[in-house]
Amino acid sequence: MTTIAPDLAERFRTDGFAFPVNALTPAEAGQALAECHTYLRTVSAAGGALARYATFPKIHLVSTWADRIVHHPAILDAAEALLGPDLLVWSTNLFVRPAHSGSSLAWHQDAVYLGLNGFQQHAARVWVALTDTTVANGTMRYARGSHLRGTLPHQFSGSELEDIMRGEEITVDIDEAAAVDVVLKAGECSVHHLAMAHCSGPNHTADGRFNLAIDYISPQVSPTEGEDSALLVRGTDTGAFLPETRPTADFDRAALQQFYSAVARRQKRIDQVVLNRDSQDRGEADRTQDPA
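Above: the chain's sequence. Below: its structure in token form.
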């Protein structure tokens, strides 16, 4: 049994995050990084939906290195300490900040895009470092306690390409003094609440930064609308989600069929979530302009 810090769940509840959490060994992290590079070369050469969805949201359904990480006992023990004994993987996301990249992400919350009921108490994102994460290579920053404010309004901060590439930004003030840099060694991970406000900076180093994010949920979570699927990784009960199965080999036929179905289903649902949110935001803006 993995040793989990006794205050992990308390820090998660009060701060909205906790790190560092021991996950992969240095050797496991090195192997996963090498396999990740091979995976990226393979999907890039394949093109099509594999390339389009190379970094989200179902990497674990076609790649055994990602499947191995989402089932890693140390990571599951941490997730169980936060969410209970029944665990599903809803999504995997690969975050790569290339060497000497000027890219960055504005302050934002993951929850506003996901369309999940019950995420407040029954979901967590685990951010696994496949390389060291530092301020110099653009690691994440958390705004301590921001998850307690609920989901916040977002909009693009400007119309320039750079603004759009940075993504939608929270439109209320973030206390920079409460910001915490997520500094991890390769193999360690952090956990954060889906309503945690966070951002990341450019990579000023000669090496790429690689992180695999895993969204764990319990069966109490359900889609706000439409069908969705998830992979049971510990315990029992898939709740409101269609069940997924583990890949037996990288990119085998059954895995690919499941992957294509799952990402199409997810994309359709998220597109509707975003459309509904945009319509709601426009309605609220209209009401603000017309008090009558």
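Helices lie at 8-15, 26-46, 48-52, 64-70, 73-83, 119-122, 161-166, 253-289.
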